[in-house]
Amino acid sequence: MADDANGPVYYVISDLHIGGDEQLAKVDFLDELLEFLERLETTDEDAELLINGDAFGLWEFTEIDGLAKFDVLTETYPELFEQLRATGESIPITLLPGNHDSELAAYDEYVERLAEYNVDLVQAESITRPVGDRTIWFEHGHQQDPNNRFEDFGNPYETPLGYFYNTQVTSRAGQLSERGRYNWLKDVQAVTPTERVPHWLLSKYFYREMNPVLRYAILPFLLLFNISVVLAVLAGLDVAGIWTMPVETVDAILAQLGLVGEAVHFVLVVNAMVAGVILLVGIPVYFILRDVGETVDRFGISETDLTVDPDEPYKNAAREVFADRPETAVFCYGHTHRPTMNEVDGRLLVNTGTWLKRLHRRDVVAGVLPPVFYPSYQLCVVRITAAPEGVVVEYEEIEKQSPSADEITRTERLLTLGREPRTELPDRSIVTDGTPESVFNAGE
């Protein structure tokens, strides 16, 4: 750890998303969060805890309004608020609203209520803090996302596009999740970017909700579908007299395998027939869909994506802050749930990640099966302080037991063998003191 003799130490977390309808009320990391707050309660550092947006999932409450949401939070998580009170007696705790808890900026009563638990709510979209002779810029990051940007932050009646997605999709998923075979639908909030939600739904249906007999009956066909497409093309060339298929040779090889060979032969023949039909139908459908897409683009009906680019908007925002405020060494944000660190104009662009479960998409090794979404936790705290060599930024990973093994089936593991996600946090980095053209040193 860096020496904090040159000034305060800032611990930064974000995107806890605590609260919501029914199944969304479960906080998988509550024990780890309480332990972290207990540790800060006894620290001898000159420390401050900054919660950089989306501490609470106020958007995910759809049946109550206003301060009643805060009442539900304190009643549901009394141990959390009592620990905030205790930690806040030892070190300052500053809370910045995000988009999911933007209502915190809409009612002054929230300032008073949170102050009762020694939490200083700042009703703004950004704040700064000194670090040595430099500063840190903090913002949640929704400002750079056109689907979650507020023109009038703090207006309780302003509802960007992201609000409707959460009330109609995320919250609804929390209400319906228990109806599934394995209570998985609540994890929709862990799917990023949101364009992946349809793929995730298809994946969970196939590997979790589909009747097992049906799933294992069609699995061989789907695994061999790519081979069947090749066979269908070759069969077409054979019919056209362009190329002759070595049918007798293949049959002889399969015959040596007995019943297994007969089963493979049957599957390949049926698959080839299906693949041929799909190819015949798919070619004209492809051109029709492409023409429809070009027409939609010409009329500008869909001009924005559902999600923001994970990096570029924030790099541009950081450049503007660094240009306007040359003393700024670090631009710190959250929102995208990806713990990352990038060098921008000799300074640091830092994302604080999320404490929610994260889902990592992995395509299967063969066939046309749905992708597999591996769950994991990457609970992390960003620590920023001044040291003799400059402004030091480092990640601390909070140990968290991996999601239960039954969240990924044996079939999913087998189909993605060798493709399991391996997550790592960025290395410790330093911005040296001096001019805005400071040298950036990564991984020290």
How would you portray this structure in words?
It is a single chain. This protein has 444 residues and is of the alpha/beta class. The protein folds into two domains: 335 residues, Purple Acid Phosphatase, chain A, domain 2 (4-Layer Sandwich); 76 residues, no CATH class. The chain is 37% helix and 17% strand. The protein has an eight-stranded mixed sheet. Strands 5-6-7-9-8 form a five-stranded mixed sheet, covered by helices on one side. Strands 10-11 form a two-stranded antiparallel sheet. A hairpin with a 2-residue loop joins strand 12 and strand 13. Helix 1 packs parallel to helix 3 and helix 8 crosses helix 10. The N and C termini lie close together (12 Å). The C terminus is likely disordered.
Q: What attributes characterize this protein structure?
A:
444 residues, alpha/beta, 2 domains, 5-stranded mixed β-sheet, 12 helices
Write the CATH fold name of the largest domain.
Answer: Purple Acid Phosphatase, chain A, domain 2
Main beta sheet: strand number and arrangement?
Answer: 8 strands, mixed
If classified by CATH, what would the architecture of the largest domain be?
Answer: 4-Layer Sandwich
- Characterize the quaternary organization of these chains: single chain
Total beta strand runs: 15
CATH homologous superfamily identity of the largest domain: Metallo-dependent phosphatases
Please give the radius of gyration in angstroms.
27 Å
CATH domain class name of the largest domain? Alpha Beta
Strand order of the largest sheet: 4-3-2-1-12-13-14-15
Task: Provide the helix percentage.
Answer: 25-40%
Secondary-structure content class: alpha/beta
Residue stretches low in confidence (pLDDT < 50, at least 5 long) are 301-306, 434-444
Mean pLDDT: 85
Number of domains: 2
Q: Termini distance?
A: 12 Å
Query: Looking at the structure, what is the overall shape?
Result: elongated
- Count helical runs: 12
Q: Which percent band covers the strand fraction?
A: 15-25%
Topology as H/E string? EHEHHEHEEEHHHHHHHEEEEEEEHEE
